[in-house]
Amino acid sequence: SSKVLKTDEVTSSLVQSEPWTVLAHKKPEKDWKAYNPKTMRPPSLPEGTKSMKIMTWNVNGLRALLKLESFSALQLAQRENFDVLCLQETKIQVKDVEEVKKALSDGYDHSFWSCSVSKLGYSGTAIISRIKPLSVRYGTGLSGSDHDMEGRIVTAEFESFYLISTYVPNSGDGLKRLSYRIEEWDKTLSNYIKELEKSKPVVLTGDLNCAHEEIDIYNPAGNKRSAGFTIEERESFRENFLDKGFVDTFRKQHPGVVGYTYWGYRHGTRKTNKRWRLDYLVSESMAGNVHDSYILPDINGSDHCPIGLILKL
Amino acid sequence: SSKVLKTDEVTSSLVQSEPWTVLAHKKPEKDWKAYNPKTMRPPSLPEGTKSMKIMTWNVNGLRALLKLESFSALQLAQRENFDVLCLQETKIQVKDVEEVKKALSDGYDHSFWSCSVSKLGYSGTAIISRIKPLSVRYGTGLSGSDHDMEGRIVTAEFESFYLISTYVPNSGDGLKRLSYRIEEWDKTLSNYIKELEKSKPVVLTGDLNCAHEEIDIYNPAGNKRSAGFTIEERESFRENFLDKGFVDTFRKQHPGVVGYTYWGYRHGTRKTNKRWRLDYLVSESMAGNVHDSYILPDINGSDHCPIGLILKL
DNA sequence: CGTGCAATG
DNA sequence: CATTGCACG
């Protein structure tokens, strides 16, 4: 049309189409750019390159996702053709695993479900794979706490690495569970990974429930005491994972790029792109093999979006 | 079309349009007929006859009903132009009464809400009136039990009678609450009514949670130990209400007519008309004034349908 | 089967 | 503003 848009209108029009390509921060610091999956992904690997595509997604209730005709994990499979999909917050009960497996099984014959047995329909992780893993373990097997009761970890062993799908406990309203999160969970997870590393490299994926740096959150100043951005969690993230050699693959590939993976339902913030990057793919020793670490912000059905990792093998 | 229907098809076609005009009983006893609101209602009262139209409806959650654009209590008002509407199972909390009042107030300026304070969002009765009552009382004020905690009675005093909107406790799965229902509730209610009668006639309305006779239920043989049709409840209904002079107005007007007011969601039984008559308008001394006691089975939005009473005054 | 709550995020 | 389970019917 011939209508001339004012600056504000241009912005909101962009926001309506692809919000994640717009930097919603009022004062973008340094030279930050917004992540754009259409322009910031590398060319495909040459034909015949041995590789593996891993995706991870906090689905916030898998049953609800499967109800949406517009989308299902298998439609994601058609679009992305991944080899392995890690899920968090499946909210699946042990008794419903078989039923859910059927709904998913379309070429992905191997799936492993870690369910909460303390609170039903809470938390829950899974690994869905087209490749049969060498072994699978549920929980950490390490002593100390609720971890292994809440279905927060499942590990699949592949030929050249271990793959962990984990859902790190939220510190909760009023930071009720902050000390548990830091002292018990993060440390146990760190020790668990160290154990695995003794035999093979580890790819750690999932909802790590921490926006590590200011660039990873919409309003850093306003969230200093919010679960997921407390200084305690951020330092724990560094100490327990990064300092042990793990790599935030997205950040390594895209320094200075703002890419969110979580919006939350509470304030309708997906369309204004005001949120957090919580879902990492963080891998040790495999960092050199990463071809692409990417975000798919236009996939709906959850308050998180899926992210992917392409590994050269 | 030119297609010739078989008998079965004709029946199911009737069932699809107006199930309540079809007697779903396999073996209708005696000469029972199905209630048909289009053919079994008397002509309107002559212009100028002083009368009052009272309706009662177990809405199974008023908030949900108000969400349905297709229908609301006020649309019922437009269609039926009642003077007073009694509600049961409003499931309204005390804190939400004002909000709900606003949604309803369209000519009905006087409404009175008895809410459960023991279990929030449970039970709950109301009287919504275009006429201002002389007085209102919540509960029975009689000692003994939970009654007055669960918002199961509200009474409005009009010039020539008391009007009670009540939601009689369901005896529950496994008849857990049967003895409470009989020994405590029914007796207290009966005593309460007797007290009121000392000053004025009483019109008792609501979900009385009892199918009194075999004609009032789809499958009498199969429900002898079902809450609402136990011999205990049926005898209590007779002893505490009918034997004290109260009249089942619908039954008096329509002997041998099968009219249900409750279907339940559990087995999709509204379309097959397989259910119960639970919602009575039972009045003492006013029985001679009843012009019409009727059922509106085509009103959706609840697992009960509304029923009405037209009183000549 | 459907309501409304509670816990959780 | 969503999810799931739960009590209740």
UniProtKB/TrEMBL annotation, chains A, B:
Annotated positions for site Important for catalytic activity: D279
Domain of life assignment: Eukaryota
GO biological process per UniProt: DNA repair
Keyword flag Repeat: no
Cofactor: Mn(2+); Mg(2+)
Site (Interaction with DNA substrate) location in chain: H304
Site feature: Transition state stabilizer: N209
Enzyme class (EC, first level): hydrolase
Coiled-coil spans in chain: none
EC number(s) reported in the record: 3.1.-.-
Co-factor remark: Probably binds two magnesium or manganese ions per subunit.
Keywords linked to the UniProt accession: DNA damage, DNA repair, Hydrolase, Magnesium, Manganese, Metal-binding
Residues the entry annotates as binding Mg(2+): N58, E89, D207, N209, D303, H304
Residues at the catalytic site: Y167, D207 (proton donor/acceptor), H304 (proton acceptor)
Any one GO molecular-function label of the UniProt entry: hydrolase activity
Family membership: Belongs to the DNA repair enzymes AP/ExoA family.
The protein's name: DNA-(apurinic or apyrimidinic site) endonuclease
Organism: Eruca vesicaria subsp. sativa
